[in-house]
Structures are given as C-alpha cells and as structure tokens.
Write a structure and sequence with these properties.
The longest helix is centred in the N-terminal third of the chain and has 20 residues. The chain has 435 residues and is α/β, with parallel strands linked by helices. The protein folds into two domains: 255 residues, Purple Acid Phosphatase, chain A, domain 2, CATH 3.60.21.10; 130 residues, no CATH class. Helix 1 runs parallel beside helix 2 and helix 11 packs antiparallel against helix 12.
Length: 435
Amino acid sequence: MGKFAHMADVHLGAHREPALRRLEAQVFNEAMDRCVAGGVDFVLISGDLFHVGIPDLEVVNGAVRKMREVQRAGVPIYAIYGSHDYNPSSTSIIDIIETAGLLTNVSKWRVGADGRIELEVLQDPSTGAKLCGISARRMGLESKRYELLDRRPLEELEGFRVFAFHSGITEFKPKFLDETETVPVSYLPRGFDYYAGGHIHQRGEFSLPGYAKVVFPGPLFTGYGRDVEATARGEARGFYEVEFDDAVRGVSFVPMESFGGAYLEYDATGSSASEAAEEVRRRCDGLQVEGRVVALRVRGELSGGRTSEVDLSSIRADLMERGALFVYVNRHGLTSKEYAAAARAGGAEDPASIESRTFEQGIGAVATGPERLRATSGAQTARRLLQALRQGARGDEAKRAYTERMMRDGEAVLGLGEQGEEEEKGKKKEESGGP
C-alpha cells in the first residue's frame, strides 16, 4: 500500500506582518515533518508553494532548508506552478528549486505535430504511481492549454494515476467565486484515480462519473484576508493523505493548527459613525485576544456620519496592546447613507470627489499612530500627499532634482523633515489662533 500527501496554496511569503510570516513558515515546516513522520511515499503540491514567482530570499532559504530535510528522509516532492509562483517572463523560484534537485515539476508538456498539447507522465520510483498535470498561469490563461490537451493517451494509461491542476472547476465552484474564471471538469482527462486540485481556497471533495476523486485541500495556512477571517472563525486548514494500491483506498484530511483566532462581525446598519465605533469597541472588550489573530468585519449602512469616522485603527491598536498577534480589519461592506443616496441619484462624481470618498472610506482600516493621520484629518492628508506627488518635472529639471523635490514635498505634507516641521507649527498656530 502506498501513501502520498496532497497540499496546495501554501503561499509562503504572502504576509508582511512578522507574526503571520513566522506562523506561515512554522505551519509549512510542521506539515512537512508530519508527512515524514506519517510515512508518506511522496508529497504533491498543487500550486502556489510561494506567493510570488521570485519571493523574498529569507522565505526561500527557510523553505529550501526544510525541503532538503524531507528529501534526505527519502520523500520526494512533486509540484506544479500555481497562479502566484508562475512567472511568464523569467525563471520562477520553482524552476530554481527543481534545478537544485529538491522537487520535480510534474507539469511537463510539448506541442505535437497536430498542434495538440501532449503531457509528459512521470512515474514515482517507489510506488509506481503515474503523475502529470497542468500548471496555472496568470488570470486563468491555462484554460487554452486544457482546450488543446490531447487527453486520449492519458486516458489509456494503466496503473495508479494522479492528475495535478491549479484551477477552479466549473461544476464545483463555491458561491463566493461566482465571477471567477473556471474550467469544466470535462477538460480533465477521464478515469484518473485522483485529481489533486489547488487554487480554490476552500476545502472540498467531489466526484462525478469518470472523475471519482476531485479534491481541493484549501490553503495550508492563509493567503488572503478572507482566509484569515475563515481561520479565525475556526475553519480547519491542512492537507490530505491518500492511501492507494491500484486504486484509492483511503483519503483523510490532516488538520494543522494555524493559529488561535477571535472573530467579530458587526452590522452597523442604522447606527451613526460614533455609535458604531463605540459598539465595536465595546464588543471587542469582551474578546479573548492575547496570543490570537483577531479578525474584525464591520459592514452595513451608517445612518449618519462618514465611514472614516468609525475609527477602527485605534481599536486595532488597542487590541494589539492587549496582546493580539495580529488584527485584520475588513470594512469593505461598510457605507454611509449619504454615499448611498448619492449613488442612487446616479450623479456622476468628479475625480476629486471620488478620491476624497475613497480615502475617507478606507482610512479607518489603516493602522496609524499620529492623530493627524486618522479619520477625516488622515483622509485630507492623503489627498494632499497625492496632489503633491502628481506634479511633473519642471522644464529641464534633472531627474535627481525632481526626485529630491518630490521627497521634500511629501515630507512636508506628512510633517516630516524641517519643511514639514515648520508647516506643522504654522498649522497648529492657525488652529489655536496664536500669533
């Protein structure tokens, strides 16, 4: 009996926040350790091992170190490109790691004499399992390869067969991805024993006649804000172990403990901006946040005030002071009655109004320290900074002089540097009515 691990959407390097970056590396390392301890014969990663094609070298170094350990334990790693770690214009980090002998890309193909795409089939030496697949490309461009795929020789293969892919399947598409491009299941070769999916950040096991086991493990950790919310709500993350001989004999999900989470969702409909801010703060006071990742979702239509006046950045700062590892804020569903009325009126907004509204709606989600960078004042500062940086070069102004001028003007708007300090002092005098 053979056994392999199937994981996808690891997204190493997706997070800039130190706490989340540390956790994503930790979860990957622990998953690899469990694969070795669990006696798998090989590991298959169905795309997006990394978040970008050329990731931060510190992230790469950590992953390579762990992959070398797995290889030395006698467990080969197979992979395909995902939509993130595919690089259309240059070598991807997946190519470099393959050249180093630490993994094997199982998505190899050539164009036949008839213009059809012929996939190369790789056979795992220890189990005899046959693997092939189609890597992802940006914006779903891999669909053309599926259309041109010569499926007949693949469907005639004998033995245990695994097909790896990194695409959504139309018949199994979750509701939250209604607008996402997918491919029909008929584009996959029929009759394979296991279809190892990636790309869909939601775990699922499916089957249709001719396609017995189509499996999406979901993200190993988290790649996007929606993932953070779902994990904070308690959605399990992990990978699959598949036992097989001449057919699949067992499929089991192996959960990984990503992080302890705390989740709060608040519908602000009918509340003023100040009431909403007060209520969110009151509810956050009741959350257990120490050592946890906190996800806040605030939505609905305010009865009065601006969305920027719901000061979530200060609430975020308070939660961090109480020991939260990280605080993710989602306010994309929050609007106000005045903006909704303007939208219903159908009046066309000028660019300046759109900019002001966008800054005012989004400023509350940004964690900032100085008071002048918060709420309405922060939105006004953002607009002034944008106006300052829009200026073009003056006549024959050299590039270096132009860059230095932009730096000085930007610092002045933000109250940094000598010019900014003078402007800030002048502004305070005006506000206080002083000489």
